[in-house]
Amino acid sequence: MFMMLRILGLLLAVGSVFPLPLLFRRATICNGHAELCGRRYSNVTVVGAHGSYAFSDDPFALARDQEVNVTTQLNLGVRLLQAQAHNGTKDGHLRFCHTSCALFDGGKVVDYLKIVKQFLDANPNEVLTLLFTNPEGLSVLDVWKPAFDASGITPLAYVPPHLPIKQSEWPTLGQLIDSGKRVVVFLDSRTNTDLVDFILPEFKMIWETPFSVTNSSFPCSVNRIHGPLATEDHSYMINHSLNINIIPIGSGVIIPDAYHARTTNGIPSITAHVNNCIPLGANRNPQFVLLDFVNVGEGFKAVDILNGFE
């Protein structure tokens, strides 16, 4: 009995330095592949769902970005969910909408996050990235954090040892899963995120290619970047979603190009875009391939190829 108490005391002492989950488990499958457990989070390419909340199977819903709901996106293999939020006019809650909630109202952010939490609970060996935009500059502490708290995701959110963190400093997928901190949350850098340690400033660590693209050749450039890190120390995301200009007058009106989604999300198109960007990304593949209509085309197969599985 005395020996058992000594062992328990030792484990508790070690647990004060290293999270106890690390002492009792080790992930052997990470995001569906044993080979990914030893790779850095920043060195794994994943499919992202652009406007993940804006789903509809109605072809006349011109503002939709996806055909299938968030749970289906995740079950297909999406491991980055992107969305834009606004202060809702219906009830004052933070809501997912693009530009205006009158255009496409995706509902309360907290309800969306609860759906994501259900997936995480059912899939304990998955690392997920949430990338949200905050164009109105709403308070990270008073508006955003309560939504994460109420959904139950906050305890799963990763907190880096310092900010910004270089591409080479991220933990592996296995380490994130073992620690229980397997959700990485980014918010665009127009917002001060300093008051919430798990909501991270995107552009200080991730650069993006141009968005709202209408050119199917997807020319590559470093479009959005901020902070002290060199470009090569950032991860990067390719915005591989094609749009069409339905009113080519003045500033124009663009909508997602659903008609060409199969070609856009095909392996040749994605591969060509990646090859255009690799020289700008320190000869690394992108971390995120952001797509509209993720259920159409071969986006997941393209990402498997980039990760070396095909």
Largest sheet: 10 strands, mixed
The run of helices and strands is HHEHEEEHEHHEEEEEEHHEH
> Pairing-aware structural class of the strands and helices?
alpha/beta
DSSP strand content: 15-25%
Number of helices: 9
Distance from N terminus to C terminus (CA atoms, Å) equals 54 Å
Number of β-strand runs: 12
Helix content: 25-40%
Radius of gyration: 20 Å
- Low-confidence region ranges: 1-5, 10-23
Q: What form results from the Cα inertia axes? A: globular
Mean of all residue-level pLDDT scores: 89
Describe this structure in words.
The structure is a single chain. This protein is of the alpha/beta class. Helix content is about 25%, strand content about 20%. The protein contains 9 helices and 12 strands. The protein has helices at about 1-15, 20-25, 70-75, 110-120, 140-150, 175-180, 260-265, 265-275, 300-305; strands at about 45-50, 80-85, 95-100, 100-110, 130-135, 185, 200, 205-210, 235-240, 245, 255, 290. The strands form 2 sheets. Strands 1, 2, 3, 4, 5, 6, 7, 8, 9 and 12 form a 10-stranded mixed β-sheet that branches. It has a two-stranded antiparallel sheet with strand order 10-11. Helix 3 runs parallel beside helix 4 and helix 4 (about 110-120) crosses helix 5. The longest helix is centred in the N-terminal third of the chain and has 14 residues, at about 1-15. The radius of gyration is 20 Å and the shape is globular. Residues about 1-5 and about 10-25 have low confidence and may be disordered.
